[in-house]
Amino acid sequence: MEKKKIKLKNGETYAYLEKGTGEKTLLLIHGNLSSSVYYQPLMDRIPDSIRVLAPDLRGFGDSSYQNPYNSLKELATDIQLFLSELKVERVVLVGWSLGGGVAMEFAARYPKSTEKLILINSTTHKGYPIFKKDTNNAPIFTEGYQTKEQLSKDPVQVKPILEALATENAFFMSYIYDLTIYTNQKPSPENAQLYIKETLKQRCLVDADYALANLNMSNEPNLYAKGENTIGNIKSEVLMFWGTLDKTVPEYMVNDNLAALPNAKYVKFEDCGHSPLVDKPDELTKEILDFIL
Question: Is the dihedral of CA 180, 245, 34, 81 positive or negative?
Answer without folding.
Answer: negative
